């Protein structure tokens, strides 16, 4: 598989590290407007560095492109790559609006190429373990969940993160991870209610979402840009027979407490993170590449990615109006 990387910032560099050691994969080019960043990524992969996309697209043997650009640039470049007959692995979110994401999906289908969106949380062992436990009867039927995701305010990104018209803000950029996971866990959303608190000095953006699902489940999501501590993710999934908890700041990976049929039996089962040679980003990209090779369906589909954008958009609308937003229909 010959693949190129478009954008050599934080995520582009992560892709470069992983693709460089992936068997059967050759990085044939890396592109960034910043020549220094392009050269650094080129050094990691042994590929040629470019500062313009046109030069990269002259390569005759290119098959796939990893799009690691700012969110507002996803649509125009994905459309262009699709027209060139190239498969695309694009970082999340797919786009800033559902309409743009659907246009990307339609263009790739028209030109017969695959489009994958990097919702990497589905590839994190702790989240995968929790999903399997929640759907295998360990806690009965999952009914409620609470997800938290805290991190420092993005810095050094040419300030595009500071413009919600380019990044989508904390909901679209950060919380979309947990939106996607919650939808994977519970299914279709019936309504969303959201509120956001922003501060300029020091920079902070804090959001709370409540998702009501069509199966009567409820999920509460919290996202925080500007958190003064280490990057933190937490979740709690409650069923009618127990609860699953995870806190990235704890040593243990999962804590499952089950309701026992016998009084006084309150056993806790701890499930550690699976030992792994490669990080979740490696597993995610390798999975997408394997889907291209054998035509199989991915763990996270472009339909899933479009749906996550739809829910994030609805949450933004709710935060602006102060009213819950009903989700109509399903994403095709």
UniProtKB/TrEMBL annotation:
GO terms for molecular function: nucleotide binding. Residues 1-119 form the Gfo/Idh/MocA-like oxidoreductase N-terminal domain. InterPro entries: Gfo/Idh/MocA-like_OxRdtase_C (IPR004104), Gfo/Idh/MocA-like_OxRdtase_N (IPR000683), Gfo/Idh/MocA_Oxidoreductases (IPR051450), NAD(P)-bd_dom_sf (IPR036291). Residues 136-327 form the Gfo/Idh/MocA-like oxidoreductase C-terminal domain. Transmembrane segments: none annotated. Pfam families: GFO_IDH_MocA (PF01408), GFO_IDH_MocA_C (PF02894). Coiled coil: none annotated. Belongs to the Gfo/Idh/MocA family. This is Oxidoreductase. It comes from Paenibacillus glucanolyticus. The lineage of its organism: Bacteria, Bacillati, Bacillota, Bacilli, Bacillales.
